[in-house]
Design goal:
Order of helices and strands: HEHHEHEHEEEHEHEHEEHHHHEHH
CATH topology of the largest domain: D-Maltodextrin-Binding Protein, domain 2
Strand content: 15-25%
Largest sheet: 6 strands, mixed
Radius of gyration: 22 Å
CATH class of the largest domain: Alpha Beta
Structural class: alpha/beta
Number of strands: 11
Strand order of the largest sheet: 2-1-3-10-4-11
Number of helices: 14
CATH superfamily of the largest domain: Periplasmic binding protein-like II
Shape: globular
């Protein structure tokens, strides 16, 4: 190889190394958030407050919408997002499947924000009457646990019904055409079905489930960028506080994003809870009960330890706040 050829090869290799380094740096400077058509993240996205705050740290924000929690956490598991929000059950199924996730924060209980719905002309009056019936739900979502608990309360098991596992849009279609007897769903789909289809509530979460919303992160991202995680949770908390104090404005802001009427959106906004905070021991215990329930039902293959997947804010980051 001649000197000029060698020189050109070295220059090309050096340029490639610089390019690869730039790509890696760019990836590290982008926070990829998964969100759904509900909750505080929708409002945070539309406000632009997070982008403004993280710009000072040189971090850009990328948003990706998911139809439900299980799909969102699959995205987190395969590395397409760094952070997202789901109900109580998706992280249990994701952890059982080996996802390298961490619980970061949670919202207070919102038991009215999920329910077992019936068609308006259904003859069913009690949960016990679901025995032998077809019930639509998104497998592994927050409403999966609601259904299990409601059936237990009525003296039934999940084996006493025929679960029909469908994402929200497909489940609504099945519900409308009468190919399922009931639908277990969360807001804003719940509020939309109530107002557009006159769906009846058979059982909501009161007295059965907390229906916490959890904020979860990919472990590698949370451990490498704790200051970004802290800033993100703080902005979520601020957005929640603003929403609670400004329901009308929040409704007007989020309704076009959801593609729903102000009336439906306001119902969903009011039934949600606000006040994100880092995970407490009490919430860990409650989430452990959910994991144990699904393990005992053989719906997940092994027992889990929730305490092993809780993010702890580093002392140096806390001191810097």
């Amino acid at each position: 190889m001649g000197a000029n050829t060698l020189r050109r090869s070295l220059v090309a290799l050096f340029a490639a190394a610089i390019s690869f380094g730039a790509i890696t740096q760019a990836q590290a400077e982008t926070l990829r958030i998964g969100y759904q058509k509900y909750g505080t993240l929708v409002l945070l996205k539309s406000s632009g407050a997070l982008e403004k705050r993280l710009a000072a740290q040189g971090v850009k924000v990328q948003w990706t919408e998911f139809p439900a929690g299980p799909q969102l956490l699959e995205g987190l598991n395969v590395g397409s997002i760094d952070f997202g929000t789901t109900g109580e059950t998706p992280p249990v199924f994701a952890q059982a499947a080996g996802a390298d996730l961490l619980y970061v924060a949670f919202e207070p209980p919102a038991p009215l924000s999920e329910a077992i719905l019936l068609p308006k002309d259904s003859p069913i009056k009690t949960v016990a009457e679901l025995k032998g019936k077809k019930v639509a739900l998104n497998k592994g979502s927050n409403v999966h646990y609601l259904l299990v608990r409601a059936l237990e309360e009525a003296g039934l098991s999940i084996t006493d019904i025929t679960p029909v596992y469908l994402p929200p849009a497909d489940a609504r279609a099945a519900f409308e055409r009468g190919s399922v007897d009931a639908w277990v769903i969360w807001d804003p789909f719940q509020a939309a079905a109530e107002q557009q289809l006159q769906a009846r509530t058979l059982r909501d979460g009161r007295g059965l489930v907390s229906n916490h919303q959890f904020y979860l992160a990919a472990r590698p991202f949370a451990e490498k960028h704790p200051e970004v995680v802290v800033a993100l949770v703080d902005e979520i908390r601020k957005t929640g506080e603003w929403t609670r104090a400004n329901v009308d404005q929040a409704t007007a802001q989020v309704a076009p994003l959801l593609g729903l009427s102000p009336e439906i959106t306001r119902t969903a906004v009011q039934r949600q809870s606000y006040g994100a905070q880092l995970i407490t021991a009490e919430v860990v215990s409650a989430q452990q009960r959910i994991a144990d329930t699904f393990s005992e039902l053989k719906l997940i293959p092994k027992r889990l330890s929730i305490a092993e997947v809780i993010w702890r804010q580093p002392a140096k980051v806390a001191q810097a706040q």
